[in-house]
Amino acid sequence: MTDLIASSDQDLSIELNQLRSQLNSDSQTQQLKAIASLATQGELGLDVLIEFLMSQQTQTPTPVSGEAYRVLYLANLPKTQEFLETHFPTGVVPLNSEVGADYFPLQQELLQQNFQAADLLTLRNLCELASDAAVKRNWLYFSEVDRFPVADLQTIDTLWRVHSQGKFGYTVQREVWLGVGKNWDKLWQKIGWRSDRTWTRYPQGFTWELSAPRGHLPLSNQLRGRRVIEALFNHPAFSN
């Protein structure tokens, strides 16, 4: 029996070392797969994620560090809570704002992958950046986008991108848009906002999960046409 336990422990140690190596590879896909596997390995797997996240503390946040943070956050153990509160008290994404806006609620919805709630909150955040009038009407004029602070738009975008495994966010949508030669009809099809000549119906027609097409979210007020999202794509926060 002792030999069996020793053999099992050795096998687990080998597997954890393999996952640790995979986690530090150059392939984001392989890194995300390693995180998913480590999440099933109990506290030993969480220890590897803690070790990894410590190594990323001074690095620019990525979908990989975001997913590692999310797994530790959702584990909700005393060890993981203490680690995150000590080293990442406001998450892996700096919640920068030039106007004192609070993006912590958006971060929380994205950590829980409550993407529909996060989308509504994002629109609210954008309206707050625009004007009191925009908050009251709950939608934007494209002309209001130009006044948005760079830091705030970048914070919102980074939160979406980092906490969606790199699938969602304005920079992702913009990349798809550039990839189809700025052809709006092709973009709508590519990100799942239209099928042939039929616009996707809100909210039931949209996919509020990671299985959605790349760039599917946030909706960027798309129900009011292309002017708002075009202004976002051309904003200095993303165009430089």
From TrEMBL:
GO molecular function: tetrapyrrole binding
Protein name: GUN4 domain protein
A GO-annotated cellular component: outer membrane-bounded periplasmic space
Domain GUN4 N-terminal ARM-like repeat positions: 9-89
Pfam families recorded: GUN4, GUN4_N
InterPro entries: ARM-type_fold, GUN4-like, GUN4-like_sf, GUN4_N
Domain of life: Bacteria
PANTHER family in alphabetical order: TETRAPYRROLE-BINDING PROTEIN, CHLOROPLASTIC (PTHR34800:SF1)
Record domain GUN4-like: where: 97-236
